[in-house]
Amino acid sequence: MGRVVVIGGGPAGLAAATSAAELGADVVLVEQESFLGGTPIREHYASITPKMESAEEAIGRRVGAVEAHPRIEVLTGSRVTELRGEVGSFQLQVEGPKSQELSCGAVVVATGFQHFDPGRETQMYGYYEFPDVLALQDLEAMLKAGQVVRPSNGQPPRRLCFVQCVGSRDRRIGNEYCSKVCCGVASKEAIEVREQLPDCEVFIFYIDMRMYGYWESQIYWPAQEKHHVQYVKGIVSEVLPKGDQLLVRGEDTTLGRPMELTMDMVVLSVGMEPSPGTREMARVLGIAQNKYGFIEAADPPLDTVSTSRPGIFAAGAALGPADLEDSVSTGAAAGSRAVVAAASQPAVAG
Amino acid sequence: MSTSVVDPYLKAPEVAGYADVSFEEKRKLFEEVKQDARYPDYLYGCYECGVCVAVCPSARFYDFSPRRIAQAAAREDVELLYQQMQEDIWECSQCFSCLRCPRGNNPGGIVTIMREVAVRHGMASAREALEGYSRIIYKIMSTGTQVSPDMLQPDAFPDWGPEVADVSEHLKLWRRALPPETLHTTSTGWDVSDRTLLELYVIWLETGVLDMIREVDEGPADPAGPVGGRLREEVSCRSRWT
Prior knowledge:
The structure holds two protein chains of two kinds. Chain A contains eight helices and 20 strands. Chain A is α/β, with parallel strands linked by helices. The model of chain A has no long low-confidence stretch (mean pLDDT 95). By secondary structure, chain B is an all-alpha fold. Chain B has a domain at 16-129: Fumarate Reductase Iron-sulfur Protein, Chain B, domain 2. The two termini of chain B are 44 Å apart.
C-alpha cells in the first residue's frame, strides 16, 4: 500500500493522518511548527466552539492519538520544498531536522488559514493604534489565562463590544467571502466574558448573524437570552479615542438611529485568509488556488477534497473558511481518498 | 441601555405632551415591568426579523412596532421604554398576532404588562387612553352591566333609522315583550342581582382594579353608591375573602 504524506498538523491534518493510518497506510505528517495542533494551539484558544471544551484538551487528545499511532511518523519543524512525479509515485523533498526525499503515493494539504490582519487596509479600527482594541484570538488568549483586562491599564473592562466581519464580506478589501466561524466564536467569547466578568456589558455589532445549524440554539440564543449579550445590527464605522475609553460609531439600523457608545474594549472579529503555508504549498505542489488564495477544490460541491492535480488532496481551512467540524470532516475524507489514490499504478512513462 | 446619544425617536419634553421624569423614575417603572411574573415568558431574545410587525394590524395604521417594544425591553433602554409607555403601548390592539414570533416572544404581552404598570402609576397616557373607558367601567361597577336600553335616545344614533324613535318612545313595552323576565329592564342591560353586584365588587376591590382605575379617574365617590358602602363594610369585616 502506497505511503501518504500529510502536510500540516492542525485539526484537519490530524484527522487526515488518522484516517489514512486507520485504513492501513503508512503516513508521514509534516508540520512546520515544533508542535502539533495548528492554529488553535499556536494562538492559545481558550475553548472550541460550540461546546466550549478546552482547546488544549480536545485537540490534545487528537494529537496524542496521532503521536501514538504506529503507522504515523511525525516530522515537526519541517517543510515540503519540492514535488516530483505523479499520483501513485510522488517524490517529496522535505527540509528540516531530518531532511529527506520521501516517496509517497498521495499527498494531503492541510495548511490552514491565518487570521485577517486588522491593520491591513482597515486602519479605522485602530488595531495598532489603541491598546484596548483587540482581535478575537487576542481575547481567546486572555480568556484562556482567565485574565480579561484592558491592556491600557490592567483593569477589567466594564463595557466591551465585538465588531463582526472585519476583513470578511468586503469587496474593497478583496475578501468577498464570509469567514463562517466568527459569528459563533464572537458569541462564544461574549458568553465567556459575561461568565468571567458578570458586571461587564457586552455588545456584538453585526451585519448578519450567521449561526447555521445547531449553533443557533447552542450559542446564539443562550448568549442573548441567558447571558444578555446585546446584539445590534449595524457595523461600527470607526473607533476613536475618548478620554481613557474608546468611542464606537455606527448605526443602530433596526431601531433606525445613529449609534455612539463608549467602550472599554473593542474586539475585532477578524476573518480567515489563506495562511502563508497554504499559499506556498499551492505553488510547490502546483495546485490551483481560487482568487482569494485558498486551494480550489476541483469539483465542488460534491467533491470537496480533490485538487487540480491527481493524487493531491486538500482539507480544512486551506480550502477556504471552515469551522472545526468541516475541517475534521474534510480531513478524514481527504485521508481516505489519499489512501485509494496512493494505491493507484503510475502511468508508464514514454 | 440606549445605543445612541442622538435618538430621532425620543421626543424632547416640550413637544412630548407629557411630563418628563427623572431617569431613576423611568428605571423604576421598567423594573416593575421586569419583575412581573409573566415577563420571562414574554421576552426571550429578539433577532429583529420583523415578522411581528408584518402580522400586526396596528402597525398598518399607527407608528407602532411590536419589534421596537421587544427590542427596547431586550436592550433595557429605559428612556425609550418610558416613551413607549407614554405613547406606543396604547396603539396596540392586543390581538396577539405577534405570537407568530419564531423565538417565542410575546410583544403584545409585554405591552399588557407595560399598560398595567402605566395604569398603576396613573401615567398621563393611561389617563388619556382610559378616559372614555373608566366611565364605562364605573357603570359596570355600579349597575353590573355596560349598555342599557335607555341609552337608545332617538337622536343619538340617526343612522339606525326611524325605528329607534318608536322603540325609545315605548321602551318599557318593547322590553316587556322579550321572553326572558330578566330582560324586562330599561336602566340596566338585564336584571343584576345584589348577590352578583357584591361578587363583582369584591373581585374589583380584592384584585386592586378599583384602586387602579382611581389612579386614572377619580370617578364618583363610591361607584357602587350606598349599596357599595354597605358592601365595603361587609368586605372589610373579613380579614380575607376566601
